[in-house]
Structure formats: structure tokens, C-alpha cells
């Protein structure tokens, strides 16, 4: 049995991980600020994620930007799973100070405490992100493996959304492995890169084993249906259930690797428990690319609500075109294999959504914010 601190442990991934670790006999402490953006206006009363863990863990309502909260939370912990972060790619492009303060400074405070004070921490698991790769890995017909730069605004304004190389050759999309180039295209991605590198660099110097997980797009029952800044399945679900039309960015062919919550929890527990994980970073996904139009149509079918779908050609600066995970490393080192793929995952997710209250559709407000900042074209 280990004492395990989960920061952001009342969030979507954190709460699911906490419950599974409790089943396995571990003692869990959660540090979470119960952000209204994720948990709603009255989190302690209405948040199902918080209520699922509050009586089963030692709960500390606090923030990772507070040294005092960190010191309290870290006391007698053997493992830290650091999930607490601001997570909206688009929002990060104009809430820059907030994202840097929470994600980078929050992690720095934790490491500073551990580097300068006696503690019992043996391992830190950091939630990194596929966003650190920026645009993914591609094959050039003549040059071989290439990592194209971020797409140009003028190209996208002309409706050219696919990646081309500097010589305008069309590129073949490949799965992104852990040795791929790191070149994030958003402030969020930059902060996740910084978090991961700090953990992987500092921890070995102070006798703590670091493990990094570069999660792809995590979804499943329990995720926030009211947060308009992150989670495309939640955003579309809320729009559909409000009988609002879905407006698809770009041409609808942009893809993501959607990984089910149960698989993410399993991978994370392997990282906590297995020494083979120590000192390594791993992709966590399904290794399958799914396009946004397929997501929208699958959800419309699942809810049996026929809303119009419009492909708008609009786009957000900072968004990537494609990225899906190469899982060779996590399979070989930790024996991880994803068990829930998109068709089954959508069925489980939509069945859960239909049991929830219909949330207010706040997407238009978040898009208006981005438009005012010049980030939505």
C-alpha cells in the first residue's frame, strides 16, 4: 500500500484514477481547487466527480500555485500523480499568464519543496500531452521522415488545411512516437512540455523516479459536459442535446486519437506500480486516427437527435491538423494495450450522457472570446 497524492484528483482522469487505486488498497490524498469551469458554479454541491471521491480520499481544497497547500498535501506521500493543470488549447492562447502560472509555476513550487525539504516521495507521474508534439510525424516522398512546421494562416484562409512541406510536397501522416520532434503550437502545449521536462530533469537529481505520460484525447463517462474550452465529444454532445447545429472547423477531416478513460487509468497505474516505467515518457492512446466529422455523426446517431452539421472552413490558430500515437514503447515496456476503441467507447459515453441533465451550451461564448482576440478565423 502506498500513500498517493493526486493533484487535480477531483477532475475527470484524477477521480477515476483515485477510485481505482483505492480498490487496489492505496491511500489517496487529493489536492484540487474545484475549478468552476470544470465542476460548475457550486462544485461542492453539484459536481458528480467531486462527490464520487470526497468521502473516500483525504481531500484538500487548494491550489498548486500555493506553497502552503503543496506542503500540506505532500506530507507523508510516497507517490505524486500531477494532473492539476489548465487544459484548454484555444483558451491558453489568450489566458497566457494563468496557464503559465498554474502549469509551470505550480510544478516548479512542488519540485522546489521536494528539492529542499525532507520527504517520502519515491515517484512522480506527470500528465504530459500529445500537444507537445505540435503537428505530428510525416513521411516526405523524397526526404523520408519530416516534422512540418505549424500551418500558415494564409494557407488556411485559402482552404488549404493539410500539411505540406516547404517544397509543397504532399506528406503522408505517420503515428507519432516518443522520439518525434517536440514543437508545440499552443501555449498549453508549451506549458506541458515545460512540466514534463522539469519533472524528468529534476527528479533523478533528488532521488525520485519520474514517469511521463503523453495522453492523447481522453474521453468517457464522467467528463465535464459544461466546459466549452476542451473535450470535443462533450462540446458536441451538449450542442446536440440542446438541438443546436454543429459547426465543424476546417474541412472536418482533421483527426485525433481518442482514448477511453478506463485505458488511461490502466496505463497510469502501470506507470505507478512498474519500475520499468521509471525515467521514461510514454504515449497513451489507441493508435487510431478518427476525424471530427466521424465524431459528430457518431454522436448524432447515438442520441437519435438530427441536428444540422455545417463544415465552416473556419479555424483556430494554435490547433494542429493531425496527431495519433505510436504505442510501441508502452506496449513493450509496460505491456499496455488499449481495450476500448472508438465505436464501443462512444456507446458507453453516449449512454452515460443521456442519463445526465442537459447542460447550457456555452460554446458560442467561448468562440466569441477567441474571435475578439483574433484567434478564430
Would you give an account of this structure?
The chain is of the alpha/beta class. It is built from 14 helices and 16 strands. The chain has helices spanning 12-23, 36-39, 43-46, 48-53, 67-74, 96-116, 153-157, 187-202, 232-241, 261-273, 292-303, 328-334, 342-353, 363-372, and strands spanning 3-7, 27-32, 58-61, 79-82, 123-129, 137-140, 144-146, 172-174, 209-215, 217-219, 246-248, 255-256, 258-260, 280-284, 290-291, 309-311. The strands form five sheets. A seven-stranded parallel beta sheet has the order 3-2-1-4-5-9-14, with helices on both faces. The longest helix has 21 residues, at 96-116. It is globular and about 60 Å long. The model has no long low-confidence stretch (mean pLDDT 94).
Sheet-strand content, in percent, reads 15-25%
Could you tell me how far the N terminus lies from the C terminus, measured between alpha carbons in angstroms?
52 Å
Structural class by helix and strand composition: alpha/beta
Global geometry: globular
Strand order of the largest sheet: 3-2-1-4-5-9-14
Oligomer: single chain
Q: Work out the helix count.
A: 14
Low-confidence stretches: none
The ordered string of helix (H) and strand (E) elements is EHEHHHEHEHEEEHEHEEHEEEHEEHEHHH
Radius of gyration, rounded?
A: 20 Å
The main sheet comes to: 7 strands, parallel
Strand segment tally: 16
Mean pLDDT: 94
Fraction of residues in helices? Answer: 25-40%
List keywords for this structure.
377 residues; alpha/beta; seven-stranded parallel β-sheet; three-stranded antiparallel β-sheet; 14 helices; 16 strands; globular
